[in-house]
Design goal:
The chain is 76% helix and 0% strand. The chain has helices spanning 12-17, 22-44, 50-57, 65-88, 90-109, 114-142, 145-176, 181-184, 186-197, 215-234, 244-266, 274-277, 280-310, 315-320, 323-343, 350-366, 371-385, 388-400, 405-434, 449-478.
Length: 485
């Protein structure tokens, strides 16, 4: 008898024919998960390592640009990679993005000044933007819509774990070794990712897909997005709310935004998917993604501060208390993936789950929670937040059609990035605006009991803002027509 033959790797043809086998599933997932993890973790990896980097390279005033430069570059490149992937092939462009990410990581590790490191982080972000969006677009290319739920659920889980675990890992490495290892480790991991990606079928692009011809649109988008993300980090701190400078920045943002919309409406192949945004399903899903991402990243960034300054929890314990939020997100992602895979209904779970999330956040806003209650409520919050991304990806990709999978996936990633920055900025502005007794402008972690009480009130207001965001996301998902994939 002939020996049984191993199952072939997934191909576009086999994927379209029916569900993937377990072996094909693992083959494809193992190839695309590593680039996604690296790109997501690098968004928050330096949060806890920043003080150590400052001690070596100086420049405390500009240390926040270590994160901002990466996020700016990645956000700007998301729609560019979506267009290039549709035109020239998604695996090919993913390998190109991985190569850029590797070079950026190497320069980051070798940086001798903060300015050099910030610029290298921006270059790394140019590759990171491709890793974040093309991995998911590749799934949309090789897997039928119902089967995508498993992948998108795992992706949402990985993204949440990488984002939340990034600061923990960064602090451990910076404390026990050297912060440069945070970038050096990307080199062997990228080599492994390259090897796994090369095992996937090299499907060509869509020759009739629109080429990237909107250079002016790219520049306007970069300017508008960059100024917006800078403003969200500066307003209320370097840039007073009630100041002429703030008014001028807002006016410039509006002018760039209007110019961008006018440009994108007047070209045949815009860098932003204006045509997709006119579709009700797409616009509602993207609204939900942005609002959900804003509330989620705000919790990731600020909940440890809440534990530290309001409840007096030390740094090590506050890291461990982020695990329920991570666990809730993981369970929500996996549960939603199974629901969609079995029922074919990506609209079934997110709206009610987000309504529960909003109620949990509102409870934290109304009743100043005890420590145990706050941790439990964040786990409930994480569950609802974890249901959004996989369903939104499937709905937007299915609505866009196979020729625009890359552009559609890029739109979801873009709205998640912008929502994350905007939501985090709003949450922080509300918290520290209400907590007027917070001393030293936030420069010191030592606060008086009175300041701690005021800060608790500020966080209650911040939780209320997050509750409004998730309620808006629930409403947007509830308005998406019932769709079977």
């Amino acid at each position: 008898m002939n020996a049984p033959q191993p199952r072939p790797p997934p191909t576009a043809a086999s994927a379209s024919a029916g569900p993937l086998s377990r072996g094909q599933f693992l083959h494809l997932f193992s190839a695309v998960m590593l680039p996604m993890i690296m790109a997501a973790a690098d968004q928050t990896l330096l949060a806890t390592a920043a003080p150590v980097i400052h001690e070596e390279l100086g420049g405390l005033r500009d240390i926040t640009w270590l994160a901002l430069s990466y996020l700016l570059a990645a956000t700007v490149m998301i729609p560019v990679y979506g267009r290039l992937g549709d035109r020239y092939g998604r695996r090919r462009m993913l390998l190109a993005a991985l190569a850029i990410f590797v070079v950026g990581s190497a320069v980051c590790a070798a940086s001798t000044s903060l300015t050099m490191l910030i610029l290298a982080r921006a270059f790394q972000g140019i590759g990171g933007g491709g890793l974040m969006t093309l991995c998911q677009a590749l799934i949309g290319e090789l897997v039928i819509p119902r089967e995508r739920a498993r992948f998108q659920g795992y992706f949402a889980t990985l993204f949440a774990v990488a984002n939340i675990g990034g600061p923990v890992l960064g602090g451990l490495v910076a404390h026990h070794a050297n912060w440069r290892w945070l970038f050096i480790i990307n080199l062997p991991l990228s080599a492994l990712a390259w090897w796994r990606l090369m095992s996937l079928p090299a499907k060509g692009g869509q020759p009739d897909a629109p080429a990237l011809e909107d250079g002016t649109g790219v520049l306007l988008f970069a300017g508008a997005t960059g100024l917006f993300l800078w403003w969200t980090t500066a307003v209320g701190q370097r840039l007073p709310w009630l100041s002429l400078a703030n008014g001028a920045v807002i006016a410039l943002m509006v002018a760039l935004g209007v110019a961008l919309l006018w440009r994108e409406r007047s070209v045949a192949a815009p860098v932003l998917p204006i045509g997709l945004l006119r579709l009700g399903v797409v616009s509602r899903c993207l609204t939900a993604v942005a609002l959900n991402a804003g509330a989620m990243l705000a919790l990731v960034f600020f909940f440890p501060t809440f534990l530290r300054l309001v409840h007096g929890v030390d740094v090590a314990q506050s890291g461990l208390m982020m695990l329920p939020l991570t666990a809730g997100t993981v369970v929500g992602s996996l549960t939603n993936g199974r629901v969609v895979s079995r029922t074919g209904l990506p609209t079934l779970l997110p709206a009610p789950a987000l309504a529960v999330t909003s109620a949990a956040l509102l409870t934290m806003a109304i009743i100043r929670p005890e420590l145990w209650m706050a941790v439990v409520l964040t786990a409930i919050t994480g569950f609802g937040m974890g249901t959004v991304m996989s369903s939104a990806q499937i709905l937007v990709q299915t609505t866009a059609g196979p020729k625009q999978v890359g552009v559609a996936t890029a739109a979801v990633s873009l709205f998640r990035a912008i929502g994350s920055a905007g939501g985090t900025a709003i949450f922080g502005a509300v918290v520290f605006g209400v907590a007027a007794a917070f001393g030293n402008g936030g420069d010191s972690m030592a606060v008086t009991p009175a300041a701690s009480h005021a800060l608790g009130t500020g966080f209650q207001a911040g939780f209320a803002a997050a509750a409004l965001m998730t309620a808006g996301a629930a409403l947007a998902m509830a308005r998406v027509p019932k769709t079977r994939v």
